[in-house]
Amino acid sequence: MAKKKKTVGIIGLGKFGMYLATELVASGINIVCLDKDERKVKRALEICDYAFVTEDLSVSHLKDIGYKECDVIVVCIGDQMDSAIFATMNSLELGCEKVIALGYSEESGKVLEKLGAQVIYPYKDSASHLCKNILSNNVLDFISLNDEVEICEVKLPGSYIGMRIKDTDARSKFGINIIAIEKQGKIITRIDPEYTFVSGDALVVLGEKKMLRKFEQKK
Fold first, then answer.
1. What is the CA angle 16-72-155, rounded to 5?
2. Helix, strand and coil percent figures for the chain, each rounded to 5
């Protein structure tokens, strides 16, 4: 059975929200988005099928237009704190497994965190970085080297526990190189092919983006 595509809801299509929408669609993620500005919604409809002009952020309305089905909801409202709080509260009430909200100050961030949202700060965190974290729950951090190659720190696949590096399929199947191991907070850069992975290890890997995306889904 084909794996169900992840669906992300975006509330607010300012610069951050629109860029995030574009990045997610380019990565093959289903999105649903809304904004009160018709012009912004028209732009979003050029890249996705579900974008709505609305100021109604009530639970019932969000449910009616598809946000109930979202795996992740990102609240990208920064200019009106009351709207951001309302949208965050109602997104959480929908039962969404992850609600991410933009905090434009430490004060607003603390309020949104108390509500139960994961808070990011747009002046610190880029939309592309957020997109990356949404795409894979296994990614800890990443650095893009160019349009095709990047370095990622990922959680150790469960199937690798108790396995020696030389016996893994990281290179043979995915064409990626393990360039470091994080073990109990320390980084090991001298890679011994005989090293046996243990639970809690994290991998720093180098490879083509499309193959890294596949490796990140490995169990």
1. 100
2. 35, 25, 35
Give yes or no for a contact between 178 and 201, defined as CB atoms under 8 angstroms apart. no
Half-sphere exposure of 16 (CA within 13 A, CB side): 24
> Nearest Cα to 218, choosing from 172, 170, 162?
170
139-216 in CATH: which number? 3.30.70.1450
The domain defined by 7-135 carries CATH number 3.30.565.10: no
Q: Contact 72/95 with Cβ under 8 angstroms?
A: no
Predicted TM-score (pTM) of this structure: 0.64
Nearest-angstrom CA–CA distance, 142 and 155: 12
Cβ(33)–Cβ(9) below 8 Å: yes
129-159 per-position pLDDT tens digit: 677 666 665 554 555 556 677 777 888 999 9
Q: Is the dihedral of CA 27, 32, 36, 40 positive or negative?
A: positive
